[in-house]
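User: These chains co-purify. Model them together.
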Amino acid sequence: MDKLRLRFSKTGRAVYISHLDLMRTMQRAFARAGVALRYSEGFNPHAKISIILPLGVGTASLCEYMDFALAEDRDPGSLPEVLDPYLPEGIRALEAYEAPCKGSELRWLRLEGVMRAGRDAAFYTDFFTRPSIPVEHRAKRGVRTDDIAPAIQAVQFDDIPDGVAAKLILHAQEPTVSPELMMAALGPDAPAYFRFTRLEAFKEDMTPFR
Amino acid sequence: MEINEKIDALLRQVQRPARYVGGEYNQVVKDKADVDVRVAFCFPDTYEIGMSNLGMKILYGVMNDMPGVWCERAFAPWGDMALAMRREGIPLWALESGDPLSDFDVIAVSIGYEMAYTTVLDMLDMGGIPLRAADRPGLKPLVMAGGGCMCNIEPMAAFFDLCFLGEGEDMDREVLELYQKAKTEGWDKPRFLRAAAQIQGVYVPSLYDVSYNADGTVASVTAKDGAPEKVRKRIVEDFDGCYYPTKPVVPSTEVVHDRVSLEVFRGCIRGCRFCQAGHTNRPVRSRSAQTLLRLGRETLENTGYQELNLSSLSTSDYRDLGPLCDGLLDYCRPRGVSLSLPSLRADNFSMDIMQRVQQVRKSGLTFAPEAGTQRLRDVINKNVSEEDLLNSCRIAFEGGWNNVKLYFMLGLPTETDEDVLGIAELAKKVFWTWKQHAANKSRGVRITVSTSEFIPKPHTPFQWEAQVSREEYMRRVSLLTDALARAKSVTYNWHDAQMSLVEAALARGDRRVGDVIERVWRAGGRLESWSEYFDLDRWLEAFPACGLDIDFYATRERPVEELQPWEHMDCAVSRRHLERERRRAYEGVLTPDCRAGCAGCGAASLLKEGVCRG
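Assistant: Joint model of the two components:
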């Protein structure tokens, strides 16, 4: 069973688990559930698993994808039920199936979040619908400036008590725009606190990614 | 626990926030409606260290198996988090419920290292618990402590209501049952403490009065209110049938020892004269290979860990190590689980096991000859000969290993410059052994020599010894550095002696040292076992400020007839045995291990039949 894919959610306390720790956590959950992952050959064997789009620490998600290979034949459809009791709090296995496409075809993400102690909805809407949004980031050679505007497909900001509710559709891979990068672009107008959740993933043409 | 935005905002500012939120697989969450006693188990170090501690896993399981008791975990936050919590006025919480320590009935602290003392105070304070037992008049919160440091907990006596001397599996349960009863029946704290002091192994510091001589030495320790004159260490006699945590919490973030730790036996048959654990954990009690295989398999299944470690003070001395390893390997190999064996002795048998276990990955080999010459190794009763060591190295090099670490102590009693230079000679001989026997010389060899300063510890034959001064330690370090300067393929690391000085003073301190610890904590001392947080100057300021002299505790040789501050702690090895062992050290006479011949240390008296089976 070579190219299997698991969709899982990562919410609650689990949002603080880093990408690297998550790999280890998933591997252990499979072992506890008695589902044999396939291991690489060689001197230092490691489980063949990869998480398609690393999630920043602190961001929640209902649409995480992990590709893996099994050392045994098993109906992938039954895996969520088998795995779920062995996952730590906040991680839930949602569905598993043979991967219909490459992970690199995941291109857009729909996110929701809140921003507090910053500006109002009108300000953010204005800021993120400009034709060009330069953001500086530290690259290997000094500081580089990128324009993230083309990677922001849609934004919606609404004033709520104590802050702003945000709905975003962002390009997820090549180039990658994360809520963190958007907040960085705001510079001194960045909210003191923000928190986002990934809701749904799409391919380049905005058809659902599976 | 529910994470609100205030705490979420905090977690986003700090490194590795996963260590502060709990929620791991196998954590125990109970319904508060079914719970009458809530325990916060505090480990005075980081999550990464505390979650590696087997004792904590055991007692977490033991306490949570009790109906009506819910035991949660708390660890010391790293500096960035501690600062942020204090700035925001957020108290230290326990990981399972997220409730502050001040909500708990019992605060249980595990202390295995003296340098954690200031961290204990910091955790209590961060949790909103008054530091001193005298400032906690009620039954709640009750602050209890256990762990290796209890064999002389006098420096922390003012802060604890109750201490556990020895192993906690039975004793902790008995004390909590008594607490349940006390809470239901509405006892006051003094009544509870008086009753608890009757349980074997329980030490209630407030029930002992200490007086001092004019020269600062202890004059007398007097028990009152029916407390026993000497607190007798508690052990679990049936170790084979004893509780073992087969469903430990599996951290979601990497910790130091991220693996199954299978405790094969307790105690140690060797009588290394500097070793506190080897003297305070006697007598030796083992688990059968059959039990260990079952426990190992169950724990691997319940955790999903990819590594299993056979732990004890000297795993080579486990009688059925060969069959145990074979049995475990049969299970582990097909599942990609690796087996690790720490603390192996440098002998043929161990090397054979090592080769069987580590067929694939050849990690480094570590040996601890502790001293550079046979004379000094005989003084400390380290039964390892140069021939054994070089023979083990030969087998290792022939088998393809090319990385050897050698651990030594400097400042051992009777050490001369010749002994120090002997370390360099030994390292060079290891290099020559590699040259003659290496399977593949093109890969080179790495020999690492490490030294740390000898720290005299209570309940050992060296408990009366002086620690050498920092200056003298540094002189010996430079002597060795020079001797190794031109040695090929040898790296020399030495541990700084600053921390050793404080550790020595705390290890053999009396109750008056408690003021020093509190003063150092008030000056910012916490997480001091971490070099980035340790500051000797704080201690050098605090001792005289409290009217005490650090050298009185660290570098003073005690006359044998002097009453030591810890003598009301009875760890079952007799004073007579320790004195005899000290004399034999100075005579350079070896004492055989417990199996080769019983030395009559006294520990067998803890067993019902009075016979120790080694």
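The mean pLDDT of chain B is 95.
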